Every structure is written in C-alpha cells, then in structure tokens.
C-alpha cells in the first residue's frame, strides 16, 4: 500500500490522468457535433440533453485536467474526475450489455474507439489512478492540496 | 465551482464559435438525396450536411458502377459479409496511409455504409474522408442489414 502512495508514483499517475483529461477535453471541444452524436448513440439520455452534455462535459474535463496537472485543489478535482470515470465506466458497461456497436466518444476524434471490455478496463485503471491520487496526502508540485 | 465555471465557459464558447451546435438537440433529420441529384457533383461543407442515400439509389449506383462503395465496419464484420464490390475502411482504424485510400480518386462518388441507421461509423468515416479532400461523399443510411434484407448482391471475404 505504501508504495502505491509513494509521492513520485502518485505524481506519475497525476501526470497521466491530467493529460488524458486535457487531451480528451480538447478533442471533444474541437468537434462538438461528433461528440454529441457519440453521446446520442448510447441511447441513454433524453434527446434534448445531448447537446448540453456535449458542450459542457469537455470543458469540465479540460479544466479539471489542467487543475490536476498544476496541483490546484487536487482532492476537489478528483471528486469530479473520479465521478466522471465511474459514470463513463457505467455507460460503457451498459452499452456492452445491450450489444451496441458504437464509438465510445472518449476522445471525440474521427479515430473512433469502440465500446467494449477493453474500454471498460482502461477506464477502471484511470479510476484507480484517480483513487490513488486522492488517497495520497503528500503531493509534489502542488499549489494547494485541498 | 469546478463544474459551474467550465460549463459556463463551454456555453459561452459554443455561442461565439462558427460551428456551434444548438443547445437543445432535436430529432435527427436525415437529409435525403433526391433521385435527380445522383448524377451531379455535390460538395458537402460539414459533417451535419452529408446527404443520405436510400437503398434503391445505392443499388442504382451499384448497377451502373458509378460509385465506390465503402464499408466502415470493422474487418470481422466486413469479412462476414458486405455489399459486393465494397472495400473495407474501418472507421475505428482510419489512417491517411491506408492502402485502400491510395486507390481512391478524391473526385469520385463515394458511398459509405455501416450496419444500419443506428450506426454512426459511416458518418465518422465520411467526415474523415472529407477532411482529407474527398468531395463527393454520401452515406447509405440503411446500411448492410437493409441491403441484405433487400436481397441485393453480397459477398463474403476470407479472414486474414
């Protein structure tokens, strides 16, 4: 357990997780219509909410990613990041159970990524990284640790 | 704050950008190609403006050989069965240096399909092709399953 919470190891996880969120946010901001189509394909949300989700979620990802990278309000950021990761895991899992052959919409680019167990595993790993960072009390290169 | 502030930024940015999307999404309206348009050249300027073909129109293009049919599904679905003569360009693996792309004339009439109306792979691939200079791109919304139901020519590939 101690090695998992080693501040250098946690820093690596923080870098990876923040860059994933920053990249994902930017890619979705560039192509909101494509991202909206991806959300719609999950057939989970009322149609009128699709575009609102497509407009706001990428910016939440981008800002939380940047704040995590800079070490600003790490724990508060991680509550949001981990909540998003749990949400993504859930919707991908539901889609797999329903047998949907769709793009996960994870990075919003034209290079689509299919929903599947590999995507669920990726998201679980990212969630665990978020949990690891959250549990660490002593962060390197932070502005504040709240 | 970490939710509200980025959301507000997102809404403001959507308001000022040139390719903004509506705040409230409405039922997808498929823009169908009129039968009289098939012989013309049509330049699509954005993903949402890609026009869709009905099964009988795709069959007409198939019979007269005027269109290049592209299957946007993955390799395994393609190998299990595809429209006769269609090439495979999986939307999930779209790369500019795909060998199937180099054989394609950027001015030729391209018709892309995937599984059915619920599938958006054809639209994604169409967007990718238009980004690299393909001008005359259409989507066959009914896709593989509608073609199969219609009893039109199909073929099966051997798995590699």
Report the order of strands and helices of chain B. HEHEHEEHEHEHE
**C-alpha-based Rg of chain A, rounded:** 16 Å
The main β sheet of chain A shows up as: none
- Give unreliable regions of chain B as ranges: none
**Integer average pLDDT of chain B:** 82
Number of helices in the DSSP assignment of chain B: 6
Regions of chain A with pLDDT < 50 over 5+ consecutive residues? none
Q: How many beta-strand elements of chain A?
A: 0
Overall structural domain count of chain B: 1
**Shape descriptor of chain B:** elongated
How much of the sequence of chain B is in beta strands? Answer: 5-15%
First and last CA, distance of chain B: 53 Å
> For the report, how would you describe the main beta sheet of chain B?
5 strands, parallel
Largest interface: A-B, 37 and 40 residues
Mean pLDDT across all residues of chain A, rounded? 86
N- to C-terminal distance of chain A: 22 Å
Shape descriptor of chain A reads globular
DSSP strand tally of chain B: 7
Please describe what this structure looks like.
The complex is a heterodimer of chains A (146) and B (160). Chain A is an all-alpha fold and 146 residues long. In chain A, 69% of the residues lie in helices and 0% in strands. In chain A, helix 1 runs antiparallel to helix 3, helix 1 packs across helix 5 and helix 3 (47-70) packs across helix 4. Chain A is globular, with a radius of gyration of 16 Å. Chain A starts with 6 loop residues before the first helix and ends in an 11-residue tail after the last helix. Chain B has one domain (24-155): Oxidized Rhodanese, domain 1 (3-Layer(aba) Sandwich). Chain B is built from six helices and seven strands; from the N terminus they run αβαβαββαβαβαβ. In chain B, the strands form two sheets. Chain B has a five-stranded parallel sheet with strand order 1-6-5-2-4. In chain B, strands 3-7 form a two-stranded antiparallel sheet. In chain B, 34% of the residues are buried. The model of chain B has no long low-confidence stretch (mean pLDDT 82). The chains are: A mainly alpha (146), B alpha/beta (160). The A-B interface holds A 29, 32-34, 36-38, 40-41, 47-52, 54-56, 58-60, 62-64, 67, 73, 76-77, 80, 101-103, 110-114 and B 2-3, 5-7, 9-11, 13-14, 19-28, 46-48, 73-74, 91-94, 115, 118-121, 123-125, 127-128, 131.
């Amino acid at each position: 357990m101690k090695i998992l919470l080693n501040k250098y190891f946690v820093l690596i996880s923080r870098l990876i997780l923040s860059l994933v969120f920053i990249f994902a946010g930017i890619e979705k901001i560039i192509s909101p219509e494509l991202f909206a189509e991806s959300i719609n394909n999950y057939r989970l949300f009322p149609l009128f909410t699709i575009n609102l989700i497509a407009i706001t979620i990428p910016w939440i990802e981008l800002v939380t990613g940047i704040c995590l990278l800079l070490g600003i309000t790490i724990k508060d950021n991680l509550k949001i990041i981990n909540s998003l990761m749990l949400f993504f895991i859930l919707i991908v899992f539901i889609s797999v159970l329903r047998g949907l052959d769709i793009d996960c919409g994870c990075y919003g680019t034209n290079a689509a990524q299919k929903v599947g167990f590999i995507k669920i595993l990726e998201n679980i790993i990212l969630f665990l990284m978020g949990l690891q960072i959250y549990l660490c009390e002593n962060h390197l290169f932070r502005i504040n640790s709240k | 704050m970490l939710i509200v502030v980025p959301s507000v930024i997102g809404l403001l940015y959507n308001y000022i950008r040139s390719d903004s999307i509506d705040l409230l999404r409405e039922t997808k309206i498929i823009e169908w190609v009129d039968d009289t348009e098939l012989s013309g050249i049509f330049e699509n300027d954005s993903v949402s403006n890609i026009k869709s073909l009905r099964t009988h129109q795709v069959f007409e293009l198939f019979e007269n050989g005027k269109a290049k049919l592209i299957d946007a599904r993955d390799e395994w679905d393609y190998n299990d069965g595809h429209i006769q003569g269609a090439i495979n360009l999986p939307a999930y693996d779209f790369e500019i240096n795909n060998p199937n792309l180099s054989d394609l004339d950027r001015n030729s009439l391209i018709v892309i399909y995937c599984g059915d109306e619920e599938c958006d792979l054809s639209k994604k691939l169409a967007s990718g092709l238009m980004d690299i200079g393909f001008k005359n791109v259409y989507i066959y919304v009914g896709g593989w399953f509608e073609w199969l139901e219609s009893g039109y020519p199909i073929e099966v590939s051997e798995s590699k």
